[in-house]
Amino acid sequence: MNLSAFAQFGLSEPVLQALERKGFEEPTPIQSLAIPRMLQPGANLLARARTGTGKTAAFGLPLVNMLATPGEKVRALILVPTRELAIQVADEISSFAGGGFPRIATVYGGASMGEQLRRLSRGVDIVVGTPGRVIDHIQRKTLDLGGLEWLVLDEADEMLDMGFVEDIEYVLKEANPQRRVLLFSATMPKVIQIIARKYLGDFEIVEDNTNPVQAGLTDQIWLEVRLRDKLEALCRIVDSEDEFYGLVFCHTKVETDSVARALSERGYAAEALHGDVSQDMRERILGRFRERKSLILVATDVAARGIDVERLTHVVNFNLPFDPESYTHRIGRTGRAGHKGTAITFVTPEEYRRLFALKKASGDGLRKGAVPTIGAVIQAKRSRILLRTAEAARDVLGLDLPLPGKELDEEDAVASPADPDVGLAEGSEDEAMPDTDLAPVAAAALPGPNLEEDALAAVVAASIDHSTPRPPLAPLEGKAARHTKAFYDLADEILTALSPRDAVAALAAAAFSGDLDPRKYGEVREVSVDSAGTARLYIGLGKRDGVWPRDIAEAVKKLTGLPDRMVDLIEVLENFSFATVPFEAAEKAIQEARRQRGAPFVKIAVPKGNGPPRKGPYGGRSDRSDRPQGGRTPGSKPPYRPGPKKPYRS
What we know:
650 residues; alpha/beta; Rossmann fold; seven-stranded parallel beta sheet; 13% strand; globular
């Protein structure tokens, strides 16, 4: 493996060996910009790079390289917006380290304060934490930043959007004035530049202007599904695939258990994995999953850290990820090593506005799909039954019966991830086999509840049209011959009591009872236009520009092509205006405003107060437990803030 580019940065041999173990080959653009600058004395750094471009390694590798010798005080602090990202960053940096140094600790809300205190008291070199819990430790005098050499703000724009601006300023004031600051952000809003000018002094700006990282071999689909229909949609997706071997991500432990239990009750080989699962049980669950004794692993983000399973066919986001970083890491678990994969994300009407962030992270890779219809699912199952029948005839009975192809009507095609095609005949990777005697069944209609009987009757009808039976491929001998003879003896006994048509139907019903019954599936309601999600647009025109509601309506209609009735709740203020439009129209408005010369600035409005959450599971701050502890009630004035607490931006 060629690591010459990393070696030229001046990284130590142990770090290079860690990179080789992890499979690194070439640095990403942001790594090439940040690593050499961090390894040399210089100014503070303001780095802009999109999510999924290797930012953690961009600052983690130099820190591991420079802090290999332990110090008396904390030497580096990395601030992140969420507890999940804190764990992820700490794990990634630990993977670059060897010999136990540098020593790393995570501090975030929701975890045992006692355990964090014990860890800090033993001495650490790098602390990774969320702003609220870091401030708690500073005020408890359990985190001393007097000897800090490095302060890293990861996902800075996300932290500011989530209301952490005052917390960041507080930490900057408390840190050693001689520290170097690295600020990583996917965007460069004005507030970041203000903070940089105020606290960073001399700083250098570096930008990764390459195209967004694409998921490569991963087909990314988002499906609009009502909350109550998610489980039904998941079952249809699993059943429509020839092979489903994947991860299903949920937000909470309770939901993880609930989804896994519901899948198991429906007959799927599914198990749950979350933070309450003991280490011993975790290893057993992962062992069964790797051996494919279970095919669906329902997990939380934190519990899924470190899972390395080859050839996953699917990743399903049962819940919309809170941030683009989580989305990128989730879908990156499939579509690896030259094997194609599918990532499916369920989006409820209430979550449409958060879909913008995911689209930004995935570039042009995320497209809209549709939940498979019951007819498409049944058709896929029928084709697999026909294939298994043909395989048994060939492999067990020795009949020269080609494997059937599969045909789907266009209107029944599964619009989700991968069409449930049966596959190609053995030995041919480029062409499907021609139609066989079983092929007409694959294209047959699916009427009424007696689907097994209708389908297998067609199989019998196709088979008895032969004037002569197909000869065996080769004579069978020994145990194989006796084994095959037993099936023919059984067939003779059954046919003495039943007609061929009834005999095949009865055997098929015994083997595939319920598989072809549409009553197994519940309803998945379509999201109507009236109930579809809407988005609140911010338009950079206001009263000072001489505009009225009619002008705003015309501007929005020009950008979106919507009729008057679809542009609603127009509000014109002094410097800007608001208007509500359907979600997909909002996305088009933003794109057209960027493209058209002279168009006003347009973006999704970020609600304050009790508006829908934009980031994080608890609205404003993404980590509920990051909120200050110890008798400070919501709305009270923290001692380190100069004035009343402003409303969190959701």
